[in-house]
Each structure stands twice: as C-alpha cells, then as structure tokens.
Amino acid sequence: MAPGGLVRSSHCAQSGGMDRRISARRLGELLDDRGAGRPAYQWLADGVRQLVADGRLLHDTRLPSERELVGELGVSRTTVTRAYGVLRDRGFASARQGSGTVVQVPGGPVAGGGEPLPTGPVQPIDVDAIDLTCSAPPAAPGLASAYARAVERMPSFVAGAGYFPLGISELREAIADRFVARGVPTDPDQVIVTTGALAALAAVFRAVLRRGDPVVVESPTYPNALSTLQHAGARVVGAPLIPADRDEVTAVHRRVGARMMLAMPDFHNPTGLVWSESDRDRVARVWREAGAIGLVDETMSETWLDAEPDVRPMAAHAPDCVTVGSASKTLWGGLRIGWIRAPHALIGAIARARTSLDLGAPVLEQLVVADQLERGGGLSAESRRRLIAARAALLRLGERCPGWEVDTPSGGLNLWWRLPQPRSTALVAVAERHGVLLAPGSLFAVDGAGLEARVRTPYAVDELVAAEAVDRIAAAWAQVSSAQ
C-alpha cells in the first residue's frame, strides 16, 4: 500500500483485479473541511466524488467500512450510509459482496491512453496487460479542479476567433517567469506554446535544419524525439552519453560538422542521468566552438524524487541554446501543452515554422497549465511519494532476475536495466505472453540496433501494479534465460 493508506494505479496499466483500498484515516485527510450550511452526508458524498474526479481515488478502490468511517470522521452511521447511497445512485460507487462499497468511475475507466512509441501499438494489445512501454504518470491531484477554474475563464476568450499561434499571454508569461526563477533571464517574447514537446521539437527542426544536416544525439535516447528528428530529414549521428570525455564529444561534432545537438541533461530518458554543472559547462563550450545549436529537452527536468539537483538549467550555461518543455510528465499527458524558449535571434524563424504545423494549442488546456504553473507546477508531493514507492517495487527485479543490474536514478520515470544476456527482444516477446508490455533496448538506440542487453521499465505506475509486473517479468525472464 502506498504511503498514507492510499493505493492507486496509472492510466498506463490496468489493475487486473488487484486489491486497492483506502483507509478511513487517509480518506479523512483528503476530504475538504465540511464548512457550515451543508448536510454532513452531502459533504461526504461530494468530497468522495471530487476525489474521484481529481484522480485521487481510482476505479475499484475499496472505501472504508461505515463503522470505520464513523469513528474517524465523528459522524453518525446514518450519515455515512446515506452518503454511500448517494454515491451509488450517481454511479460513483457500487456495493460488492464481501468487499463493501467500492469506488466506480461512471462509465468505467477508458482503456489505453498510454504513450505510443514509434514501433509499438497505439493502444495496448490486451487491456488486461500491464503496459510498461509508457513513461508518463497519471494526472496530478487536483487537475479536475484546475479545469473547472479554467472553464470559468473561458468567457473572456470565446468572444474572439480563438487563434493564439504563439500561445495565450498569461501562459507565456508564466513560462517566462519560471525560467527567470531558475536563473535564466527570459521575456514572454522568447516563449512559444505548442501542442506538446514533440510539436515543439518539430517546429525547431523545421526552422533551423535543412534536409541532410547532421544532428548529434546521445545514444540511447528517447525514441519519439529520434523519430521526429528523422522525419525532419536530418542525418542523425550517435554520441556517447554525457558525462563523456569532452574531446570525444568535440570530435563527433567536428567529424560530422554538426548543425545541432539534441540533449536531455535532466533525468535523461531512458537512463535517468543528470548532467553536473561541469558537464553543462563542457558541452556549452563544445557547442560554441563547433558553431552548433544546442537543443535541450527539459520534459523530465522537474521529475526529481530524492532531492532536487543543485544544477542550473542548460540555458544558463549556453544562452543561445533552444529549450523545449511540456506539462506531460508533471501534470498530465492529456493536456498536450508544450513550449519553446529560444534566443531572440531564432524566435521569429521558429514562430513561422510553428504556424506552418498548426495554428495554436487549445485555449482551455493553456489556461489549465497557466493555473498550475502559477500554483507551483512540478510534481506534487503525493505524486513523488507514489513514484518512489513504484520505483522501489520495480527495483525488486534485481532480486528476482539473477544478473540484472541497474543504476538507481534519483529522479525521472524509468529504470534502465543491464541484462546478463543480450536477450532484450526475446524478453519483450515472452513478457507480452505473460501480460506485460515492454520496449526492447534497441528501440532507444540512435541507429535502431544494438542495446540488446538493455531494457527500460518505467515506474509511472502504482506500487501494486509494479509488484505484479515484477512477478510477470521474472517468470518471462526465467523462460527466456532457460532457453539459452
């Protein structure tokens, strides 16, 4: 069970009938203050409904018994009975023999919704499978309330045509303020809002690259970014992971005459590596000497778990670099809001390229992200607790699968395992038959080959799902290794 007695799953994996429950104490902590003028049963029913809407109580979560809740909340048995009855009548709960009252999402949860990879299915093949191809957490607690506040703001916008190709002003200002707070002077004119980080990358590629231009990319790398770069017609050149010898990185840039380097300095996907201050200085110097544009992917920058890294953004070391980010890893992938921060010399070209791709991100979602950034943004404390618990559960693969090794990252969303045998592709095939979807190491290779002794296991799932995944993967690995 997760800390505080609350257990939940991710949208990237199905629960498979696992026992998910919430304690009376934890439910009491999550409920808002009752206030005056509202019947106690209505307060309790409305509070549970809001927790379901916010994604803090998931489908099939067992609610406390009426007796437990009476003792915790100090209300009458009649109050709890009536509140549970209201929840059942409105489709937010059901009574099950032997399980008591269980939370329901009206209409049931929507299957799929995971992050599609270039060579994988858009949706899981089997809705009962645990999908560990997806490296994105569920929606942040309170997101439904942020949507409600955003809807209240919509009358200010619907009188106009609704096109904001560069983004609404308040979101651009919030993003610029966030860079300033991190030590990177930025004005809103340097910010463009996009429909996610991949759209941001595509706009930058279209603005500055010509077909056949060499672009240096660390290997392994995030496959969707690599696919976007290849579709832009660039010539992709692999480079060693940072930290690497500066002379080696410089040599790659000089050998190919690099036009650009695509980098992820913060909780690199899939390895979880974070560049040190000296790493950032060294790479910034390489870019200056090579005349290359640094393109920095910050989508993972705020996914720290154990302690926030004491490093400045790459733009503080390389003021002429271009930075892309998004709300998908900290707020919710379904928001589809990303952004670009670029130097003044490039922002005009990127803006023109951006409008050749689409005419702007949805206003409602922009308002939601602005609301959340102004309230702090980043991962919530509750989200961090859940990710830490799931990471700990998946780390047990090292005990269950002899010879598996991993460098535990201090943040990010993935574990990047070293296998004792180069059998990653075989493991993926067998694991699917055991009900787990994985991505082979080769998917993360710049040239699409090699890395057969690697496999990525995202921990953006709840602790129960992660534990079940360990059992299934261990059974699959035993079958693969015995067939050697």
From TrEMBL:
InterPro entries: Aminotransferase_I/II_large, HTH_trans_reg/aminotransferase, PyrdxlP-dep_Trfase, PyrdxlP-dep_Trfase_major, Tscrpt_reg_HTH_GntR, WH-like_DNA-bd_sf, WH_DNA-bd_sf. GO terms for molecular function: DNA binding; DNA-binding transcription factor activity; pyridoxal phosphate binding; transaminase activity. Residues 38-106 form the HTH gntR-type domain. The keyword Transcription regulation applies. Keywords: Aminotransferase, DNA-binding, Pyridoxal phosphate, Transcription, Transcription regulation, Transferase. The keyword DNA-binding applies. It comes from the Bacteria. In the C-terminal section; belongs to the class-I pyridoxal-phosphate-dependent aminotransferase family. This is PLP-dependent aminotransferase family protein. It comes from Flexivirga caeni.
